[in-house]
Amino acid sequence: MRQPCVASRRMGTLYIGVTSDLVRRLHQHRDGSGSDFVKTYGVHLLVRYELFSDMPAAIAREKQLKRWHRDWKINLIESNNPDWHDLAPTLGLEPLRQRARKDGP
Question: What CATH number is attached to the domain comprising 82?
Answer without folding.
Answer: 3.40.1440.10
